[in-house]
Amino acid sequence: MFAKILIANRGEIACRVIRTARKLGVRTVAVYSDADAHAMHVELADEAMHIGASPAGESYLRGDKIIAVARATGAEAIHPGYGFLSENPDFVDQVVASRLIFIGPSAASIRAMGLKDAAKHLMEKAGVPVVPGYHGEAQEIVLLASKAREIGYPVLIKARAGGGGKGMRRVEHPDDFSEALSGARREAKAAFGDDHVLVEKYIEKPRHIECQVFGDNFGNAVHLFERDCSAQRRHQKVIEEAPAPGMTPELREAMTEAAVKAAKAIAYSGAGTIEFIVDASQGLQADRFWFMEMNTRLQVEHPVTEMVTGIDLVEWQLRVAAGERLPKTQNEIELSGHAFEARIYAEDAARGFLPATGTLHHLKFPKAAPEGATMRIETGVRAGDAISPCYDPMIAKLVVHGKDRQAALDALGAALSQTEIAGSTVNTAFLAALAADADFAAGDIDTGLIGRHQQALTAVPPPSREIIATAALAASGADHLPPSEDPWSSLAGYAHFHPMARRTRLRHDEEEIVARVLVGPDRRFEVTLDEPADAAQSREPDAALDPDVFLGEPLVPPVLRPPMTDWEWGTPASPQSPLAPSFTGRRFRQGDEGQRPRTARWPGHVTVFEGAIGYIFAVPDPLVRADEAAAAFDSLRAPMPGLVKLVRVATGDVVTKGQPLLVLEAMKMEHTISATHDGVIAEIAAEGAQVTDGTVLVRFAEEAHTAMPVSAG
Ligand code: ADP
Ligand code: ADP
Ligand code: MG
What we know:
The chain is an alpha+beta fold. The protein has six domains: 4-103, Rossmann fold (3-Layer(aba) Sandwich); 132-201, ATP-grasp fold, A domain (Dna Ligase, domain 1), CATH 3.30.1490; 205-336, ATP-grasp fold, B domain (D-amino Acid Aminotransferase, Chain A, domain 1, 2-Layer Sandwich); 340-460, D-amino Acid Aminotransferase, Chain A, domain 1 (2-Layer Sandwich); 465-618, no CATH class; 628-707, CATH 2.40.50.100. The chain contains 20 helices and 40 strands. An eight-stranded antiparallel beta sheet has the order 14-13-10-11-12-15-22-20, sandwiched between helices. It has a five-stranded parallel beta sheet with strand order 3-2-1-4-5, sandwiched between helices. A five-stranded antiparallel beta sheet has the order 38-33-35-36-40, with no helix packed on it. Strand 7 and strand 8 (168-171) form a beta hairpin. Helix 4 (89-97) packs antiparallel against helix 5 (107-114). Magnesium ion binds next to loops. The site of one adenosine-5'-diphosphate has 13 residues, from strand 12.
């Protein structure tokens, strides 16, 4: 085994690899960019070296620098993780030329599978079924369009160098072919520097089922069963599971046999995944699956396979790279129970899964899975870390295992609803809605499921009055007074006989909320919503009240620290009797964390968690509100940092509602910014401009509103 390895990656996967290395007594070297100077992977590794600026092109994609660090630190091998350099055969050549070991397959294997067109030719020869379509050299648009017609619509245009669902367009109708082609090419060029495409038959009711394979340097290859990754949005995986629901022994045998055949055809060594597309329109049939591509690396969703086989795939990677044989034979690899992985992302599901950035001011994962289940949280961030626009916005992977699919699904739902993230928009509510979706729960999934149910899966019910009251209470700071252990300070509480009150203003979405929070001398709270101004005036109990003090300052003088008691809120049954025992709200006992809605305060905001939903309330600073209102009205702003890729209209153009105005490239995806109403363009951003979150992209000569991004797919 190696004494020391370098991990050429960041985030959760770097942390994941370090964990196994440590278990095996292997020392680790991390590399990091400017943005990651204080990242978790840097902290966990035994050593860490800075390799460049934040953009991946200047750091994590700089093979030369990474190899130099490996040599300088005495690392013997490089683990690439996934993404970045993991599937770059030139990098592998350089690693080997520097007399280091690449923890992964040979450059030749990666080249054989690197381009989807060449891989399909190869698999055809090896006798593995491939998706019908055109995967030739010639790329003239007329030829591609005629191939598409031959194949029959709908078709899928795919970048041959594609990965992560990028550079892919589904086309329903010949009229849309050329537009889709240029979109796919542009995205492919930007993400992979290669705009060659293939055209495939779009499989109806498709399921994505993939096989984990593993090879060693002695010609052995095994499979570790399948994973189902059909729950996708924009061709990207959302929740993965193993085994595939409804899998038949016949299909499993045919598929795993094809997968091992594929691995052997390229003398594969290390961890790899053969992705198949399955036509599930008539259930799972042994002759209805086709090779899509091979990922010649560790897959994001590898933990579900680890959960059902009990095998540490990173350990196997290290052993095989160090020259050991596969630790188990095919017969010794067994399936047990069921596992799910949910990818928690910083993104806005309701706005077309737009990637989000922000600082994770509050981050809390469940401590343990429910009885009988097991759980793993794979993450590379801690509370206080920022989601950088330079990298994938994944926050964590929540992985659960149960004795069967239902037990695992229950554990997944429970874990999602105990996860608390504040500071960025996250997809936990969407994941929980998907886990609870009737079709998903029944195992009736295909890659179109999320799209069909998108409305329901992304709709969030408005906050209840209880949630709003909780937000107001948290915003007031009244529930965060330090508990008293000091007998002297609790005695001091006796000096206060009057209730104290604060008027609190909040905003949820576009709605202004005014609440009155009252704290009684016995440390009970009352929150009143929508109180008419005159009523509030008339019932302020004299001296203790100060209705116009906003939040941020201590609500109650520090001397008031009575012992903890019950607290309650709700609409007072009688407006004349604040703190009377007759409230209509629910009643909670302090310290009863299971029942009390959980909250997190972060700069300018309060988040209230209800199940997997985090309701975000802004606590506006009254001084800046007038400004904001004035600025918002006649422009479209960048919803996130990015690059203005394409500008489709010019100053003076008359545009109509829904018309695409420009394409913003952010986080390697394209986002079309469309007109939110009819108008005349007064000003528009320049092509090639780098913009930050909130930059004005378009100014209308007439009135307009905020940018509504439309998904690229
Ligand atoms: P998986 O099937 O494991 O989800 P994906 O193809 O989605 O694999 O990619 C895994 C990760 O690697 C994702 O985070 C994706 O953003 C990233 N990725 C994939 N291809 C590339 C690439 N060519 N360059 C940079 N990152 C990539
Ligand atoms: P990537 O390299 O981006 O992962 P893939 O070829 O693996 O690209 O395809 C990504 C996803 O797109 C698949 O998981 C599947 O959902 C969908 N897809 C790919 N090919 C087809 C097809 N021919 N018909 C229907 N869906 C497809
Ligand atoms: Mg794929």
